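name: query_chain
kind: protein
chains: 1
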Amino acid sequence: MHLRTLLLSALSAPAALAALNEPCYGSGGVAGVCVTTSTCTASGGTTITGACPADASDVKCCSKTSCANGSSGNCRWSSDCAGTTVSNQCPGPGAFKCCSSGATGFGGYSAPAIPAVGGCKAVAVTGATTVVNAWPGRIRQIYCTRDCACPGTSDHCCGKAIDFMCSDAGGVPTSSGKEIAEWAMNNRATLNLKYVIWGQRIWNPSVDSVKAWTSWRSMEDRGDVTQNHWDHVHVSFN
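structure:
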């Protein structure tokens, strides 16, 4: 997608819809899921307002920090669980499970292959290497080019974007990417950053001031975990 299109979409955020059953960050940054308030209450969870994209009146971020899976049982995305998981104790989709560990289970992956310079431009290859080195074990796989003619509808078409996959598999949600996305913002000069997307939010140095991810501009609901950037951080380079 062209940057202009991305920016126009982001600036039209009030028309965006909450992404039901996708991740959010609850009170204190704990893992949450966007569900109806009735679903959250029925599951014994707690809601906060404003943490799901364009919250509908009955859709809020639901978290549940205590469930029956050992003394530290808590609800989180299974990709982020450092222990064992039990189903049917947490609100939302099946990937949001009762984890036996209170520890953050982000990453633990082998170093991903870095693409060679060619179709993937040098600025993206350098950026990919920089991010992977800064976040060892947190990036499972890297994608650079896409089968489309440059300029196309995405910086991937020109080899000037990287998708940093940071969950256990494509289409599997995680809370892991927020730290990586904010790091990319804070290291924008080193990366020669054009813009960064994580969790249905976008940040662009030519438009936005430096701020927490929670204050980034919202994007429209594109319909699934991958397109809403809940399994990878997208970084475009100049």
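note: Residues 16-99 form one domain.
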